[in-house]
Design a protein that fits this description.
homodimer; alpha+beta; Arc Repressor Mutant, subunit A; D-Maltodextrin-Binding Protein, domain 2; 3 domains; five-stranded mixed beta sheet; 8 helices; 36% helix; DNA-binding; WH_DNA-bd_sf (chains A, B); DNA binding (chains A, B); WH-like_DNA-bd_sf (chains A, B); transcription regulation (chains A, B)
DNA sequence: CCCTACCGATACCCTGTAGGTATGGATGCC
DNA sequence: GGCATCCATACCTACAGGGTATCGGTAGGG
């Protein structure tokens, strides 16, 4: 039993996600028949049925469901291998850090100067990406470090260091019935409409999708939604909205994450500088 | 830039480990010239120099060193994908647990009956493997769960649940100068010879390598070595050796580990049963 | 100092396989 | 029942991956 080829995994992922050989083949830029044969050969070599096909529909078997998840992990690991080696081969070493907009709660401007003091410091490039994208970029090796948020982000596969714990505040329109309160409980907000953030589970979606903080503030000011967000967002509150602490909302943490078993001195130095900068940071 | 093929990674690993194209080719079962070309093509595609070759010697560049480690992770992930899917496709679901000999500190005989009570229980197969092999078997999907030991084993990439904390005891020949003591400090053993266990870092090796507990006891009884081991080993002490607690040795934990993001009900039930069995276990 | 043994790279050939086109056969729908 | 849809099969082609022979550079022994 020799190892599966990357190409076979890519092909399977395409079919498993499209549940349609024709569309999958198109997405892969090949014709449908070779794809059908490739999947057949894959199943024969693995001695497992991954897909149930009729001439009308394709569906995943339990083994196929497991295999799809495992393929994603494995393919991420392969591209991470490539990217990390390429990065290590650069003559000018560089550190890339991923964050989402406002995802640093103002910490980065304290971390960067502190890091530059370190003898192991190298150039830092901050990659501002879409919300929820940071962990993917860290997983597949496009960046060396990421600023993530617990409990929102999936931290499996990373080493992490907590930088900051943020209490939650409700953002309300100035005229909202609860705007005059000094503190709230989650139960007070039961009847409200909440926005959906990109990367959220779309199942529990109720309100409109929100892309950035400006848009959020706009919707809040109009009274369309109410948002429960980390207190660091206070810095972006407009004059026509108010922020009220929500005492029983689970607090979120800003944390720095990097791939497990990383031995880079530059990464270690950045982590060191970050924890120190966070420890001396003023209350937000 | 399309993805690297598994075969290329396997080829590179062979060369990087042998540091010799001829031997690597032999190990791979192919001729040397195609291997040379494959590595060249790999380097060209990655646009990174991975190996420094002269006509007399081959050595790894920094990028090559990183890539070797990443290749291991990636290849493990690929074979894990295959194995886990195969396992999920079995009509008779089964749980495989890896442990090294005596690695359960007597816990397993309490865990298994407790697990069988669980509604989600399936057949359990215990794989007794070489010391240090458990984490590898868990990483590449040959088993679903493993009994590991902190801080000895590398836990990165796993979710874990601590089952038991074990204090350390020194095993001494009955006639040893310290045999009459009721407790020791590590400093008392400074001048002693310690055995080397399989999977240990061979750098700090001083004494002879030891394969199993019987052999260890033999060497101790002969006065050749002194061992500091978890107290659970007491159960295997022969009459011509004595065990003395070492108060300042870092205590080791027995813990149950499984791959991150596992969603199997059977695994969850086994973890549940294990923690409960461990909580009600008698002192060793 | 030169000859030889060693080792990776190159040149050249061949075969297996990935991919393409055409078409068959099953199934649901109007 | 005719048709559209969709996966599988049949058959062909091209190229990538593998083999053999050999080159070119380097270290070491006599």
């Amino acid at each position: 039993m020799d190892a599966l080829e990357t190409r076979e995994l890519v092909y399977f992922v395409a079919v498993a996600e499209e549940l349609h050989f024709g569309r999958a083949a198109e997405r892969l830029g090949i014709a449908q028949p070779p794809l059908s044969r490739a999947i057949q050969r894959l199943e024969r070599r693995m001695e497992v049925t991954l897909l149930e096909r009729t001439s009308r529909a394709v569906s995943l078997t339990p083994a196929g469901t497991v295999f799809l998840a495992e393929c994603h992990k494995a393919l991420d690991a392969v591209t991470a291998a490539q990217r990390r080696a390429q990065r290590a081969g650069q003559d000018v070493p560089r550190l890339k850090v991923a964050m989402k907009p406002e995802g640093d709660a103002g910490l980065l401007e304290r971390i960067l100067p502190a890091y530059r003091q370190d003898p192991d410091a190298v150039d830092v490039h901050v990659e501002v990406c879409g919300a929820g994208e940071q962990s993917r970029m860290l997983r597949d090796g496009r960046v060396d470090l990421a600023l993530l948020h617990a409990p929102h982000d999936d931290l499996t596969g990373f080493d992490t260091e907590a930088l900051l714990t943020l209490n939650q505040v409700a953002v309300l329109a100035r005229g909202h019935r609860l705007a005059e309160h000094t503190a709230l409980a989650l139960a007070d907000l039961d009847s409200e409409t909440f926005p959906r953030f990109p990367g959220d589970d779309p199942v529990q979606a109720t309100g409109p999708e929100v892309r950035d903080i400006g848009q959020l503030m706009q919707l809040v000011a109009l009274g369309r939604v109410v948002a429960v967000v980390p207190e660091s967002v206070r810095r972006h509150a407009r004059s026509d909205v108010v922020c009220v602490p929500v005492l029983d909302a689970p607090s979120s943490s800003v944390l720095l994450a990097w791939p497990e078993r990383t031995h880079s001195r530059a990464v270690a130095a950045f982590v060191r500088a970050s924890t120190e900068a966070a420890a001396t940071a003023p209350a937000v």
